## 1
Amino acid sequence: MKINVLHLLLSLDFGGAERVVSLMLDKSRSKEINYSVCCIDSIGCYGEDLINKGFSVNLIKRNKGIDFALPVKIAKLIHEKKINIIHAHGETPWFYSVLAKIVCIFNRVKCITTIHGYGGGDRDVFKNKLLWKFLMFFSNKTIVVSEKLSEEINKIKPFFKDRIKTIINGIDIKSIALVKKQSKKYWKIDNKTTTIGIVARLSAVKNHRILLQAVSELLKQGREVKLFIVGDGPEMGCLKCLSKQLGITKKVIFTGMRNDAVSFYPLFDIFVLPSLSEGISMTILEAMASRVPVIASNVGGNREIIEHGKNGMLFKSDDLNELLNKIKYLIDNPLKRDNLSANARKRIEKNFSLNQMILQYENLYQEIVTE
C-alpha cells in the first residue's frame, strides 16, 4: 500500500524544522511513501530547492487572525492528493492540521505533529495548555525531538503518554563533507583573527544579543575576533542596531539568508549557540559534524548532544561572563578545541544518523496507517 504524507509548515525557509523536512524528502529512498508539502506563509528557500528536485510543494496562504477557511482548503488538497497522513511542524500548522482532519473526518486521514523545540524560554512550551490538550486529543501521535521535551510533556499531559514518541534529529554527514567550503580569503580573514559563528534563525529565542555583547567585550580586551551571523529573521534590524550601538559593525558579518549555510562551518574557529531554549539543534549537529568546537547554552536538548568539557561546552544562557570566559578559554587553547571537535565528530557519527531518523519516521507512518 502506498502511503501519501503531507507535511504542513509555515514555510520551508531557513530553520531547524524546515531543514529536517527538507532532508527527509530529499534523502528518503522509500518506494512505499510519497511525500508532498503544504506551506501556509511562504515557500521559502528549502521549498524552492525541493520544487527544483521534482517534489510537490504547495502554498495555501492563510489570512490574518484565525483563518477558518484554511482547514477547508487544506482538506481539499488532502482529498486531491489522497493523503493518508498529515504531518504538522509547529504549533500553528498543528492547529490547522487538526481542523483539517476534522473537516476530513470521513476520509479517515491521520494527523501527527513534531514538536521541534520550545517557543520561548526553556519551559515556555506550555503557555497554551488547553490548546495543546485539544490538539493532542485529535492527533494520532505527537513526536518530540529530545528526551527532555518528552519528560516535560509527560509531566503536564500524562493522559496522552501513549501518544508521545521521541525521534531524535539526524544529519547527513556525507553531504556535509561534500559541500564547497567558504574561503577565508574571500571574507578577508587572516591567521591572527579568531572567527566565531552562529547559524540560526534571527529570532529572540536564539539569543543573538548576548553573543554580540560577548564579541564587544572581547574586542575591548584586545582580542582579534570576527563574528559571522548566518541566517535571517525578525530580529535582523534590532541586531544590526545593537552591533552599531556597541561599535562593532566592522567586526560582525550578517550574511542574511543562505542556501549554502553548511558551507560556513569550516570557516569558524568556534561555533556558539546561546539559545534560550532548544530541542535537538540541527545547527549544533552540523557544526559538530564539521569538526567545529561548540559552545551552547545549557538548555533543553543541548544537554543531550553535548557532554560538557568532552565534546563541547555549555553555559548558562543569561550569563555573559560565563560565555565570555569559555570563548576566551577556547581561543587560548587550540589543542582543547581540536580535542572537543574530534570527540564531537565521533558522537555525531554514532548517535545522530539521518538515515536512522528517516527510518523511524517511515516506520511510524506504516504503523499509524495500519492501526
## 2
Amino acid sequence: MMIDKSKIQKEAFYILNDLNDLSYESYICGGAIRDILLGKEIKDFDITTSATPEEVMDIFKGKYSVIPTGIDHGTVTVMVNKTPIEVTTFRNDGEYSDGRHPDSVEFIRNVKEDVNRRDFTINGLLYNGHDIIDHVGGLYDLNNKKIRAIGNADDRFRDDALRMMRCIRFSCQLGFNIVKSTIQSIERNAELITNVSQERIHDELIKILMSDKPSKGIGLLAKTNLLKYVLPELQSCVGFDQHNKYHRKNVFDHILKVLESTPNIMK
C-alpha cells in the first residue's frame, strides 16, 4: 500500500523533515496513516520522534510557536501557520493506576517499543516521509478489515478501559470486524469501564450513535457486557419478550431495528 503524499498537510512535513534532517528518528503516526490508506479525510496529524520534549522545543524555538501541552508525557504542540502538530517522544509507560494516564513515563529511542504500547494494530502504522513502517501487522488487518489489539489485549484495556468502547466505535465507523481474541478480552474486562469518567464514555457513545452502523455498536456493547455499565436502562430490554403477537422481536432487537432505520440527520 502506498501513501498519497498530497493528503498530508505540508505543515506536518515541515516538522517531520526538520527532525529527520537533524538525525532524530521521526514518523507521522496513528489514525492519520490509517485514514489516508482508507481514502478518508484527515484533519489532525501527529508525529512521534526519538527527540526528547526539551530537544523538540529547542529545535523549533524561534521558528514556530511551541507549546508544552503534555510535556510530562512527552508531548509538545508545534504551531505551524496556525496549524497545530502534536510531537510526542517515543516512550514506555508505567502502571495505569487511574485507568487512563501512566503513573510514570520513560522516554526511549526504540520506536518499536513505543508502538507496542498503542491500542490497535491499524493505529500502529508509521510513515517516515517515504515508506510505511509496520511493526504490529497493521497493514494486514487494514487489508482484511480487522480490528485487533496490539499485543496482549487485556493489558491494552487495563491501561485505558475506554479503548474497549473505542474498539467498538472503530468497528462501526470503518465497517471492520473485531477479532475474536479482542472481543473476548472486552468481555473479560468490561467492568473496568466503571473507572472511566462519564464525559469520556459519553463522547465515545455519541460517536457510535453517529456512525454508519449505530445498531451494530449498541449490539456489540450488549455482546461484550459493556451495555450494563454504559446504558443500564437499555440492558434490561435485552431478551425481554413483548408478549404481543404483532411483535416478533424482543424489546432490545426491536430497538436495534428502529435505530438501524433512523436517518442520521447530522450527515
## 3
Amino acid sequence: MIKLKSILSENLSGKSFISVDIQPEYQNAFRFTIEKYCDFLNNSYEQFSSLTFLYNGADTLGMISENDYKMWFLENGCNEEVIDGAKFYDKGYAFFRYCMDSDIEEDVIANFVRFMYLNDIRDSRDMDRDMWAKYLRQYRKTDKREAYDLLKVSGDCVHIPDLMDYLKRFGGNIMLTGGGVNQCLKEVEIALKALNKNYTIYAPFTY
C-alpha cells in the first residue's frame, strides 16, 4: 500500500483528474475491472485537485441517470467520500465525429473548433462566406483545406457542445482517462486542445 501511494503521489498529485465514459453501458469494452478502478480512486482521490466524471447520461442520450451512476460506483467499491467529492457532467457525444471519421488531422479539427468557439458559432453549417474566408486566412500557414473542403458543402457538421464551456473552467494540469480512445475520449482531447488546455492521458484505465 505504501508503494501504491508513493506512485500515485508522484504521478497524480495536484491533477484535475477527468474520467470519460467509464460507465456500465461500456463495461464490456473495459481492459480493467471496475472494482480495480474504484480501488484506484479510493487510494488516489486525495491526491487530485479535483475529480470529474464525464459520462453519457439520461439528459443527452437516455442512458444512466446521475444518481444511478453514483450508485454503480458505490456498489463496485468506491468510497462514499470519493463520490461525494466528485463532479458529474452529462456530456453527450459526436460533436466532432464527422471530421474524425473522415480522417482529418486532430490538430486541424482542434483549430477549426477553436475558431468556431471564439467566433461564437455553434454549428459549422452557420459559417457564412466571410467566416470561411476568415478561417482560411487565419490558418492558411498551418492547416490544409480538409475541414473547409469537407464541411463547406456537407449536410453534416461540427457543433460546439456545452461541454466546451464546462471544460473552460479547468486550469492546467489536467489528466484524462477512460474511453473510447479514438471516440469519446478523443473528442474530449480535441475540445481541450481547442481551448489551449494542457493535459495528459492516464493509460491504465483507458479502453
## 4
Amino acid sequence: MSGEAQSVSKDYAGAKLGMWIFLFSEIVLFGGLFLLYSAYRAKYPADFHHSGQELNIIIGVVNTVLLITSSLTMAVSITALQKGNKTLSLSCLAATIVLGIAFLVNKYFEWRGEIGLGMYPNSPELLNHPDGTKMFFGLYYSMTGLHGIHVFAGIILLSFISYFVYRNRITASDHAKLENAGLYWHLVDVIWIFLLPLFYLAA
C-alpha cells in the first residue's frame, strides 16, 4: 500500500472514530432524558397515561413513517455513491432533506395545536392539571424539541453534504463524510422511534 493510500485509510478511520464518539455522547444525552422520563412515569403512571392520550397519534405515526423512509433514502444515497452513481446519490439526499423538512412541518402544526389548547409548560391551563400532567408535557416539549433541533441540524448537514457531492469533494473513493452524515441521520431516526411509544403510545 502506498503512503498516500495509507494516509487516506488513516483519515477515514479517524473520521469514523470521531463520529462514533460524537454519537455516543448523543446517546448518553438522550439516555439520561429517557431515564428521567422513566422515573417520573413510575411516579405518575395514571397522569402520564391520560396525558399521552391528549397527543395526536396520527401525526406521531406519520412522522415515524417519514423518518423511517428518510433513513432508507439516506442508505440508498450512500450505496449509490459508493457504486459511482452520483445522480442517484444526490436525488436520494434531496429526498432525505425533504422528508426531514416534512417531519418538522408536521411537528410545528402539532405543537401549534397543543399550544393553542393551552397545554404548554407554565401555561394557566396546564397549571390547573395534576403534577404528573405538568411533568409529562414538560418532558414532551423538552425531548421532542431537542430531537427537532437535531433533525434541523441534520438537514443543514445534509445540505452541505449534497453540495460537496455535487462539487465532487465527496466521491466514490472518498465518501467518509457522507457515511458519517448517514450515521448521524440514522441515530436521529432511532431516537424518534423511542420517543413515539414513550409519549404517543403511553399506556
